[in-house]
Amino acid sequence: MSTSPAHLELVKALARIVGDAHLYIGDDRVAPFVSDWTRRFGGPCVAVVRPASAAEVAEIMRACAAAGVPVLPQGGNTGLVGGSVPAASGQQPPVIISLLRLTELGAVDGLAGQVTVGAGATLGDVQRHAVAAGWNYGVDLAARDSATIGGTVATNAGGIHVIAHGMTRAQVVGIEAVLPDGSVISHLSGMLKDNTGYDLAGLLCGSEGTLGIITSVRLKLHRPLGRTTLSLVGAASYADALALMSRAGVASESNAPGSRLLAAEVIDAPSMDLVCALADLPWPLEQRWPVVVLLEVVDGGDGSGLPLDESADAVVAFDAADQARLWAYRERQADAYGAVGIVHKLDVSVPLPKLADCADELVALIGTLPDVTTFGIFGHLADGNMHVEIVGPLADDLRADLAVLECVAGYGGSISAEHGVGRAKAADLHLCRSAGEIAAMRAIKGALDPQGLMNPGVLFA
Ligand SMILES: Cc1cc2nc3c(=O)[nH]c(=O)nc-3n(C[C@H](O)[C@H](O)[C@H](O)COP(=O)(O)OP(=O)(O)OC[C@H]3O[C@@H](n4cnc5c(N)ncnc54)[C@H](O)[C@@H]3O)c2cc1C
Prior knowledge:
Blueprint: H1 5-18, E1 23-24, H2 27-34, E2 47-49, H3 54-67, E3 71-74, E4 95-98, E5 114-118, H4 123-132, H5 149-154, H6 162-165, E6 172-178, E7 184-187, H7 200-204, E8 213-220, E9 228-235, H8 238-247, E10 260-268, H9 269-279, E11 291-298, E12 314-317, H10 320-331, H11 333-340, E13 343-349, H12 352-366, E14 374-380, E15 385-391, H13 399-410, H14 435-448
Parallel strand pairs: 2-4, 3-4
Antiparallel strand pairs: 1-2, 5-8, 6-7, 6-8, 9-11, 9-12, 10-11, 10-14, 13-15, 14-15
Helix pairs in contact: 1-3, 9-11, 12-13
C-alpha cells in the first residue's frame, strides 16, 4: 500500500464510510483481491473497501474522485481477462471496491417472472433463489458459486445456456448503479415496455467496470423447461460436431413442439486427456475421438431429443447424478489447464459456418508457435465460441495470443466472445471493432467518466 499523505487521508475517509472492519490494507488482507483466477494478472492497490449499500458506494466514489484516485469494482474475481484486478505497472494503483456484501435477494415477482438482487449475490445463490420460487435464471457457468450477478452483468457473461436464453444482457430488465461522480441511477421497475430514452442498463452490461458500479439488478426469469437428456458423443471433426448439433435442433424462446437444444458444448481430444488426468476420470467413450460433443436437450428426459443413430459412440445420462458426472468433463476444463501452468486463455467466437475451418487452422497454427507445450480447445459450440487454451509461453509473452486473435479476426470473428476485453485484449480491440466504433465508445466513456477514474486500462489501451 502507498503511504503518501493523500492516500492516507483517503484511507481514513474510506474507513469512516464503511468502518475499519471493512477496509483492508496490508499485503495479507488485500492478497485475494489483487491477483486473479488465472494467476496471470494483478498489481498493487491503495486499499480494498467493502461497502454494504449503494449509498456507501456513492460516498466512496465521491471520496476517490475528490482525491483523484482510480477505482476498480470487483465481484467474485473470477474474470479471466485481467479486468478485475489492478495493472501490474503503468497505472496509478486503484481503490478496489468489493461488492461482495451487496447480497440481497428480493422476493420473486411471480406475476412478471422477475427478481431484484444485489450486485454481490453469487450467480449460484440467484439460481437457487429462483428455483425455490418455481422459476429458473437463464445464465449458468462453471464459476457459478463465486461469480457475482454484478460481475456477470458487467461482463455480459454467456455460459452454457446462451442458445436457449441468450447472454446476460437478455436477462437484465433494470439496473441500479453508481456513476463516477457519485450519483446513483436506479431504474428497477421491471417494465418490459419503457421506451424513455437511452437504455442505460444495456450500456452498463458489458462495460467491465469502466462506466459505473452496478449495485442492484432486476432480472428476468424463465419457467422451467422440463426434464432433459444429456449426452457425450464422439465426432471425427468439428464439421461433424456441428452437423450433429444441427440435427439436435435449435432452441428458441417459443414453446416449440418436440425437443429443444439447451446446451451444445465441445471438447477436443487434448483437453479431454487433460481433464481425465486431473480429475482421475476415465475416457468416457469407446473410441478416442478428435472431438467430443456434449448435447443437452429438453425432451421430457426420455432421450428422444438426441440425434443419435446406432453407429454413434455416445454415453447418455438421464438422471441428475449421471448428468453431473458427464458435465464434469466440460466444467473442469479450466481447472485442468490451470493445473498445467499459467494459461493464455483466448475466448473467441466465429460465425458458425466458419467454425470448423477456423478451429482446424488454429490447431495447425498453434502447433508452430514457439514455447507452446500444451494447447487445446473447448467451448460453447452452439454459440461459435471456442476457448483456446495455451500453456508454455511466459505470462507476459503475447505472441501466441496475438496469433490466435489475428487468425480469428480473419474469419470475421470476435476476439472476446464472453469474458470481455479486460486488460488482456485492450490493445487488440481494433481487430474486430472499427475506428469509428472505438471512437464512439471512448466518447461515452469520456462523457460519464471525464476524470478517467473507472477501471483505467480496461477495455481501452
Ligand atoms: C471456471 C470458470 C468458468 C467460467 N465460465 C464462464 C462462462 O462459461 N461464460 C462466461 O461468460 N464467463 C465465464 N467465466 C468468467 C467469469 O466467471 C465471468 O466473467 C463472470 O461474469 C465474472 O464475474 P465476477 O463476479 O467474478 O466478476 P469479477 O471477475 O470480479 O469482475 C469482472 C469484471 O466486471 C467488473 N465488475 C465486477 N463487478 C462489478 C460491478 N458490480 N459493477 C461494475 N463492474 C463490475 C470488474 O471491474 C471486471 O472488469 C468463467 C470463469 C471461471 C473461473
